[in-house]
Amino acid sequence: MSYFRTAVDLTTGYIPGEQPKPGTPILKLNTNENPYPPSPKAIEVLRNLDSEWLRRYPDPYAKDFCLAVSEALEIPTDWIIVSNGSDELLNVIIRACAEGSDRPVVYPMPTYVLYRTLAALQPADAVEISYPQDFKLPIDELVAAKGAVTFIASPNSPSGHIVPLDDLRELAQRLSGILVIDEAYVDFADYSALPLVREFDNVIILRTLSKGYSLAGLRMGFGIANPQLLTGLFKVKDSYNIDAIATLVGAAAISDRAYKNECAEKIKKSREILTANLKNLDFTALKSHGNFLLATPPEGNAEHLYLQLKARGILVRYFKQFGLENKLRITVGTEEQNQTLLAALLAIEKQ
Ligand SMILES: *Cc1c(COP(=O)(O)O)cnc(C)c1O
Asked: Where's the Aminotransferase class I/classII large domain (predicted)?
């Protein structure tokens, strides 16, 4: 006898990357946080916050934030749904659209593991389609799986590849369910699939302030889709899912695009340098469009290396998962942090 539904009993739950307390002397390159601080304008809003904002319930639609997004991305405010991190929106979408074997969740693998966890909890069948070696989108197989929800992360984690717009367009056209394009890493990429939301009524684009805007602790994400597609999602989300502080701080951050772009440019530059330096150490690393690299160490000794780095106070991500056993996902840090990582790898190699 259990207190829980069978689906809950059968699910392990999502296992997040390790999160040591701020101030712990650890180089944290495991969860793709941005190494630069948030926009000074966002911090200023936080410092000057009137406590009246805390006494009252927040705006259920986070309108101040929607206005800032609307200006930044040139989309109408009623095309935006705001969420407590984009993780919450993934959950809301699955609750609204997926169920059992008739309304499955479909996604190519490897990708963000949370899609699987959320589907299992719903429960909804999860149809996992393997990416080929070259990460070309397997459009025919994705369409044939008939998802009520199809998730595509682009840029994808952990591979770092970006899906060409024409492939996403073809997929959107051929799917009968909704297509969720998870753009958590778009700030480090060369293009976005945003134009597709105007072309297709079944496409929703997910964004977050966690990566590009250095605000993972604030929990602020949002979706962009035509208002008709958002109606069902608004019914499912908690009324007050966005707290008042996040609404105001997030609005200031997203309005400061210049600062975000400056940090993203630095990271993109460091990403290329780190890729080259890892190759010099005989790693193979895929070309990345995110703020991380998926790297294969020379002897494929990824788990061992993960543990040795950890012993030296450097956290990277190791996924004990089919196809990823010999790989590490490494977040791109500041130039100095990347040098520390490389020095540690060199020292371990010489041991
Ligand atoms: C980090 C990440 C998210 C979650 O972002 P939050 O807004 O912090 O919840 C969603 N999707 C992918 C692919 C991610 O890597």
From this structure: 25-345
